[in-house]
Design a protein that fits this description.
The protein has 423 residues and is mostly helical. The chain has a single domain, classed as Na+/H+ antiporter like fold (Up-down Bundle), CATH 1.20.1530. It has 15 helices and no strands. It has helices at 3-24, 32-45, 59-80, 91-116, 120-129, 155-170, 172-185, 194-226, 242-256, 261-275, 281-312, 318-339, 347-355, 361-371, 380-416. Helix 2 runs antiparallel to helix 15 (380-416) and helix 4 (91-116) packs antiparallel against helix 12 (318-339). The radius of gyration is 21 Å and the shape is globular. The chain starts with a helix and ends in a 7-residue tail after the last helix.
Length: 423
Amino acid sequence: MTFSDLVYAGLGVGALLAAVLPRVVFSRPFSMPMVFLAAGVAVQLLPLPVPVIDPLGDRPWVEHVTEVCVIVSLMGAGLAINRPPGLRSWAGPWRLLGITMPLTVVVTAVLAWALLDWPPAVALLLGAVLAPTDPVLAAEVRVGEPTDAEEDEDEVRLTLTSEAGLNDGLAFPFVLAAVALAAAAGTGWSAEWIGGWVATDALGRVAIGVAAGMVVGRLLGWMFFRARASALRLSEHMEGFVALGATFLSYGVTELLHGYGFLAVFVAACTLRAAERSHGYHKVLHEFTEQIERLLTALLLFVLGGYVAGGGLAALTWEAAVVAVLLVVAVRPLTGRLALIGSAAGPRERLVVAVFGLRGIGSLYYLAYALGLDDFGGLGRELWAAVAFTVLLSVVVHGVTATPVISRLDRMRGRTGPLDQPP
């Protein structure tokens, strides 16, 4: 028996579990990500020659696998949302993006600076990489498959899914702000970088991402549904793997133009969906992306579990653990509630949206990406320990609570209509 034999067997078991577990854990107070995290921990503790992934030594590998997982999930999220984007129809996501996200970055950075005594650039990086939310890790809080009816989506699932689709791209300016600060001031503080950052990273690259996503989405929408040549009207052939082509094309073109590819993928998916909103081909594309996303997520969480069991949290201090706990149980809920004051959602719905800001694969990607640009004072292992612990905490806390909370919310909504009474 060789190690490669074990790998093949493990991959086979993992793929089967990724297909079976969502149905097994449905309506139960735990989630598929929790199972794969626990499996990674358990396998690492067995007397087997299982290597531990070092996110610093294996940084390029970690960066690119998490990158693919994020962009595939963004395509799936954009295709699944039935409600067209608009200032009023997406009021909840806009509030979370404009208020909750920057406040989360700032408050988390201040906590890291005050409790950990980290340099400003490192503290800002921690706040930036922990800003994106990821409902992939709790399927109960995201929208389901595409349907014909916009009213199929409740406010909680729509808000959390669309927020995650957009903030996975809009976290980039904050990450690059930390990189710029580190380059300009090292372990100190400087404001010289802010002007260039605002013009290029905060405005220019966002505009390119949105524009490129819309152009690619429109072109693909024309090709899939309206092209004269039958060979180009891919909607008639119902092949799901085309979703990967749309994902990689929108991402790659935008990155070549120096825009934010994550943002472009989600915008392209929403634009493609708008091209023929009720067509059944969207369901085919979404199902394919969901399957790929599930496999990649299972792999990454298994690896994360092994990393934790193999000593990945050795560099975690109690101060960093406190920052993680405060982010999950206080910072996100409070900033989320603040952003949603006066929104159309009922009080209970606002509370659930504020609480379920999961941290996940996007945070792992952003940290690997940033550490490829700067070593941030040699605090890479401390950063990885803090981020891994936060993701672990979020997966467990939100994974346990998502099913009972969302199920109760659904029962109350079905019984009383909109949740407009105080909790």
